[in-house]
Design brief:
Blueprint: H1 8-11, H2 20-33, H3 35-48, H4 57-60, H5 70-81, H6 100-120, H7 126-137, E1 143-146, H8 148-152, E2 158-161, E3 168-170, E4 180-182, H9 188-201
Antiparallel strand pairs: 1-2, 3-4
Protein backbone atom coordinates (compact mmCIF):
# COMPACT_ATOMS: atom_id res chain seq x y z
CA UNK A 1 0.00 0.00 0.00
CA UNK A 2 1.39 3.47 -0.78
CA UNK A 3 2.80 5.16 2.33
CA UNK A 4 3.84 8.64 1.23
CA UNK A 5 1.91 11.42 2.94
CA UNK A 6 0.32 14.35 1.19
CA UNK A 7 2.63 17.24 0.40
CA UNK A 8 1.67 20.72 1.58
CA UNK A 9 0.95 21.87 -1.98
CA UNK A 10 -1.45 18.98 -2.57
CA UNK A 11 -3.20 19.38 0.79
CA UNK A 12 -3.91 23.01 0.00
CA UNK A 13 -5.24 22.42 -3.50
CA UNK A 14 -8.58 24.21 -4.00
CA UNK A 15 -11.74 22.21 -4.58
CA UNK A 16 -13.05 24.34 -7.45
CA UNK A 17 -12.76 23.42 -11.12
CA UNK A 18 -9.23 22.07 -11.67
CA UNK A 19 -6.69 23.85 -13.82
CA UNK A 20 -3.89 22.41 -15.91
CA UNK A 21 -1.30 23.24 -13.24
CA UNK A 22 -3.35 21.78 -10.38
CA UNK A 23 -3.99 18.56 -12.31
CA UNK A 24 -0.29 18.18 -13.13
CA UNK A 25 0.67 18.79 -9.48
CA UNK A 26 -1.87 16.21 -8.32
CA UNK A 27 -0.65 13.71 -10.91
CA UNK A 28 3.01 14.14 -9.95
CA UNK A 29 2.16 13.65 -6.30
CA UNK A 30 0.12 10.50 -6.91
CA UNK A 31 2.77 9.03 -9.19
CA UNK A 32 5.27 9.35 -6.33
CA UNK A 33 2.82 7.84 -3.86
CA UNK A 34 2.07 4.86 -6.11
CA UNK A 35 5.59 4.37 -7.48
CA UNK A 36 6.59 1.32 -5.42
CA UNK A 37 3.19 -0.32 -5.93
CA UNK A 38 3.26 0.25 -9.68
CA UNK A 39 6.77 -1.19 -9.84
CA UNK A 40 5.52 -4.31 -8.11
CA UNK A 41 2.58 -4.53 -10.53
CA UNK A 42 4.98 -4.31 -13.47
CA UNK A 43 6.83 -7.34 -12.11
CA UNK A 44 3.56 -9.24 -11.73
CA UNK A 45 2.58 -8.35 -15.30
CA UNK A 46 5.91 -9.63 -16.59
CA UNK A 47 5.03 -13.06 -15.15
CA UNK A 48 1.44 -13.01 -16.39
CA UNK A 49 2.37 -11.93 -19.94
CA UNK A 50 5.30 -14.32 -20.18
CA UNK A 51 8.02 -11.68 -20.39
CA UNK A 52 9.91 -12.62 -17.26
CA UNK A 53 13.04 -14.69 -18.07
CA UNK A 54 13.05 -18.07 -16.40
CA UNK A 55 16.83 -18.26 -15.93
CA UNK A 56 18.82 -16.00 -13.67
CA UNK A 57 21.48 -13.76 -15.21
CA UNK A 58 24.34 -16.07 -14.28
CA UNK A 59 22.62 -19.01 -16.02
CA UNK A 60 21.05 -17.14 -18.95
CA UNK A 61 24.32 -16.99 -20.92
CA UNK A 62 24.67 -20.77 -20.80
CA UNK A 63 21.04 -21.68 -21.58
CA UNK A 64 18.53 -20.98 -24.31
CA UNK A 65 15.99 -18.18 -23.87
CA UNK A 66 12.80 -19.48 -22.32
CA UNK A 67 9.69 -17.78 -20.97
CA UNK A 68 6.94 -19.56 -19.11
CA UNK A 69 3.20 -18.82 -19.24
CA UNK A 70 2.42 -20.86 -16.14
CA UNK A 71 1.37 -17.78 -14.14
CA UNK A 72 -1.19 -16.74 -16.77
CA UNK A 73 -2.55 -20.28 -17.03
CA UNK A 74 -3.11 -20.44 -13.27
CA UNK A 75 -4.69 -16.98 -13.26
CA UNK A 76 -7.06 -17.72 -16.16
CA UNK A 77 -8.12 -21.06 -14.74
CA UNK A 78 -8.87 -19.56 -11.35
CA UNK A 79 -10.77 -16.65 -12.86
CA UNK A 80 -12.82 -18.85 -15.20
CA UNK A 81 -13.73 -21.58 -12.75
CA UNK A 82 -13.98 -20.00 -9.32
CA UNK A 83 -14.87 -16.32 -9.56
CA UNK A 84 -18.46 -15.41 -10.50
CA UNK A 85 -18.81 -13.04 -13.42
CA UNK A 86 -22.55 -12.30 -13.35
CA UNK A 87 -23.84 -10.35 -10.34
CA UNK A 88 -27.21 -11.00 -8.76
CA UNK A 89 -29.31 -7.86 -8.39
CA UNK A 90 -31.76 -7.31 -5.55
CA UNK A 91 -34.16 -4.48 -4.79
CA UNK A 92 -36.48 -4.49 -1.81
CA UNK A 93 -40.10 -3.46 -2.45
CA UNK A 94 -40.88 0.12 -1.47
CA UNK A 95 -44.25 1.24 -0.15
CA UNK A 96 -47.34 -0.81 0.62
CA UNK A 97 -48.84 -0.97 -2.86
CA UNK A 98 -50.08 -4.31 -4.15
CA UNK A 99 -47.67 -4.24 -7.07
CA UNK A 100 -44.64 -3.16 -4.99
CA UNK A 101 -42.94 -6.54 -5.39
CA UNK A 102 -43.67 -6.63 -9.11
CA UNK A 103 -42.14 -3.17 -9.54
CA UNK A 104 -39.06 -4.18 -7.55
CA UNK A 105 -38.65 -7.26 -9.75
CA UNK A 106 -38.97 -5.09 -12.86
CA UNK A 107 -36.16 -2.84 -11.63
CA UNK A 108 -33.96 -5.90 -11.04
CA UNK A 109 -34.64 -7.14 -14.57
CA UNK A 110 -33.93 -3.69 -16.03
CA UNK A 111 -30.61 -3.35 -14.20
CA UNK A 112 -29.59 -6.83 -15.30
CA UNK A 113 -30.41 -6.09 -18.95
CA UNK A 114 -28.52 -2.76 -18.93
CA UNK A 115 -25.51 -4.33 -17.20
CA UNK A 116 -25.40 -7.26 -19.63
CA UNK A 117 -25.70 -5.04 -22.71
CA UNK A 118 -22.96 -2.69 -21.46
CA UNK A 119 -20.71 -5.66 -20.66
CA UNK A 120 -21.13 -7.25 -24.08
CA UNK A 121 -20.19 -3.98 -25.79
CA UNK A 122 -16.66 -4.29 -24.38
CA UNK A 123 -13.86 -6.41 -25.81
CA UNK A 124 -13.48 -8.19 -22.47
CA UNK A 125 -16.24 -8.77 -19.93
CA UNK A 126 -15.77 -6.12 -17.21
CA UNK A 127 -16.62 -8.53 -14.40
CA UNK A 128 -13.96 -10.95 -15.65
CA UNK A 129 -11.40 -8.15 -15.76
CA UNK A 130 -12.32 -7.17 -12.21
CA UNK A 131 -11.63 -10.74 -11.10
CA UNK A 132 -8.29 -10.83 -12.91
CA UNK A 133 -7.18 -7.54 -11.36
CA UNK A 134 -8.16 -8.66 -7.87
CA UNK A 135 -6.24 -11.89 -8.31
CA UNK A 136 -3.15 -10.13 -9.66
CA UNK A 137 -3.02 -6.90 -7.65
CA UNK A 138 -5.68 -7.22 -4.92
CA UNK A 139 -6.94 -3.93 -6.38
CA UNK A 140 -9.15 -2.87 -9.27
CA UNK A 141 -10.94 0.12 -10.82
CA UNK A 142 -14.30 0.21 -12.57
CA UNK A 143 -15.18 3.09 -14.89
CA UNK A 144 -18.89 3.80 -15.33
CA UNK A 145 -20.44 6.58 -17.36
CA UNK A 146 -22.89 7.54 -20.08
CA UNK A 147 -22.39 8.23 -23.77
CA UNK A 148 -24.66 11.07 -24.98
CA UNK A 149 -24.30 9.94 -28.60
CA UNK A 150 -25.73 6.51 -27.77
CA UNK A 151 -28.57 8.17 -25.87
CA UNK A 152 -29.56 10.26 -28.88
CA UNK A 153 -29.46 7.17 -31.07
CA UNK A 154 -31.87 5.36 -28.74
CA UNK A 155 -29.28 2.80 -27.64
CA UNK A 156 -28.01 1.84 -24.22
CA UNK A 157 -25.83 4.81 -23.16
CA UNK A 158 -24.17 3.05 -20.23
CA UNK A 159 -20.39 2.72 -20.43
CA UNK A 160 -18.62 0.21 -18.23
CA UNK A 161 -14.88 -0.32 -18.52
CA UNK A 162 -12.20 -1.87 -16.34
CA UNK A 163 -8.91 -0.11 -17.12
CA UNK A 164 -5.57 -1.36 -15.89
CA UNK A 165 -5.22 -0.02 -12.32
CA UNK A 166 -1.96 1.66 -13.37
CA UNK A 167 -3.96 3.99 -15.62
CA UNK A 168 -6.07 5.45 -12.82
CA UNK A 169 -4.50 7.59 -10.11
CA UNK A 170 -6.58 8.10 -6.96
CA UNK A 171 -5.75 8.91 -3.38
CA UNK A 172 -5.12 5.70 -1.39
CA UNK A 173 -5.92 7.56 1.83
CA UNK A 174 -9.57 8.24 1.09
CA UNK A 175 -12.30 5.62 1.35
CA UNK A 176 -14.22 7.39 -1.43
CA UNK A 177 -11.74 9.46 -3.46
CA UNK A 178 -13.45 12.55 -4.81
CA UNK A 179 -11.11 12.96 -7.78
CA UNK A 180 -9.10 10.75 -10.10
CA UNK A 181 -6.69 11.11 -12.99
CA UNK A 182 -6.76 8.62 -15.85
CA UNK A 183 -3.61 8.16 -17.89
CA UNK A 184 -4.29 7.01 -21.42
CA UNK A 185 -2.48 7.05 -24.75
CA UNK A 186 -4.52 8.03 -27.80
CA UNK A 187 -3.75 8.26 -31.48
CA UNK A 188 -4.20 11.73 -32.92
CA UNK A 189 -7.10 10.61 -35.11
CA UNK A 190 -8.89 9.19 -32.05
CA UNK A 191 -8.40 12.39 -30.08
CA UNK A 192 -9.55 14.50 -33.01
CA UNK A 193 -12.74 12.44 -33.41
CA UNK A 194 -13.38 12.59 -29.66
CA UNK A 195 -13.03 16.36 -29.50
CA UNK A 196 -15.26 16.78 -32.53
CA UNK A 197 -17.95 14.66 -30.91
CA UNK A 198 -17.70 16.70 -27.72
CA UNK A 199 -18.10 19.90 -29.71
CA UNK A 200 -21.15 18.57 -31.52
CA UNK A 201 -22.81 17.47 -28.27
CA UNK A 202 -22.15 20.82 -26.60
CA UNK A 203 -20.32 19.34 -23.63
CA UNK A 204 -18.28 21.84 -21.59
CA UNK A 205 -15.61 19.35 -20.56
CA UNK A 206 -13.67 16.41 -21.93
CA UNK A 207 -14.83 13.87 -19.35
CA UNK A 208 -17.72 11.51 -20.06
CA UNK A 209 -17.74 9.51 -16.80
Amino acid sequence: RPKQAYSREVREMPEERPTNSSVMAWRQHLEKVWHDTHTNWATIDSYVWGRYPLWQKEDAAKRSIYYTHRARAILDRTNDNILPYKPQWHRDPTGEAEDAQRMADAVENWVDAVWLDASLSQTFLPAKEVGRNLLKYNYTCVEVGFDPVETEAGRNPMIMRVPHPWQVLMSPYERRPHRAIKRQRWYWTELQAYLKRKEETGADNLVEV
